[in-house]
Amino acid sequence: MTNELTEGDAQGVAKRTPTGTVDRMTVLNGGEAHVSDISQWSPGVNVGQPAVFSNNAYLIQHGADLMLWDTGLDDSMIDIPGGRVMAHDVRGIVKKTLASQLEEMGISPEQVTHIAFSHAHFDHVGNSRYFSGATWHVQRFEYDAMFGTNTTQLGFLPELYETMRNNPVNMLGGHHDVFGDGAVVVHATPGHTPGHQSLLVRLPDRGPVVLSGDVAHFHQNFCCRRVPLFNFDKPRSVDSMNYVDALVAREQAELWINHDKAQSETIPHAPQWIK
């Protein structure tokens, strides 16, 4: 098994994939990340400048199934005034819990049948414990890293996702068509972490969207192929940006960069559904 990839892979997967659509998708607020020096994410650029990152989760309806992509920061942080400093000198702030947003939409965590994370950092797996019955789609490289001996070096906090050991697991070794109709396709995009992945979602009206996770944290980094200081593998990080670029072009898709606050503010959020 390998997690090597090329731009040709993106074009090949797209050509082979059927083009079904989901019913709808909504964007949930997973908190904010406040950083004091954005140059950690873009070495040598904007040194010493603070920034605020958006942090979203995405709920996708496909027939009778609900799939959640990422779960945001831990809901319990709403009780901490001013938030809490996590890994990489990031201060996480929660102003509205994931649980309350789901409740507002009349959805219980037990209704979520599928779950996947772009990767296992604290701002993406913070509420994983709510979804113990969902089938978990995860790259083998990420799973092994999550439950391995180097979690601290990777910036992982196992206490946030320990309960996922008991979930039904669909272990992946690359790309995966979740429902078999091309409506939701996981794409392996390693580099930020060992088994980072991105998600292609085909919406019936808006069209295809690529949820790129932390392949890049904002559009300028994506366009300039800038790699954060703490990424697991710099060359593969660049490969994954190239791969996602080719996938977006081939699918004529929108690219949604999770932590790009300026872009996030232009996208409708829950309780509004996007079709």
Number of helical runs? 8
Low-pLDDT stretches are none
- Beta strand count: 13
SSE-based structural type: alpha/beta
How much helix, percentage-wise, in residues?
10-25%
Outline the structure in words.
There is one protein chain. The chain is an alpha/beta fold and 275 residues long. The chain has a single domain, classed as Ribonuclease Z/Hydroxyacylglutathione hydrolase-like (Metallo-beta-lactamase, Chain A, 4-Layer Sandwich), CATH 3.60.15. It has helices at residues 7-16, 98-104, 122-125, 140-146, 151-154, 219-224, 234-251, 261-264; strands at residues 24-35, 51-62, 65-69, 84-85, 90-93, 114-116, 135-139, 169-172, 176-177, 184-188, 197-203, 207-211, 254-256. The strands form two sheets. It has an eight-stranded mixed sheet. Helix 1 (7-16) runs parallel beside helix 7 (234-251). The termini are far apart. The model has no long low-confidence stretch (mean pLDDT 94). Residues 54-259 form the Metallo-beta-lactamase domain.
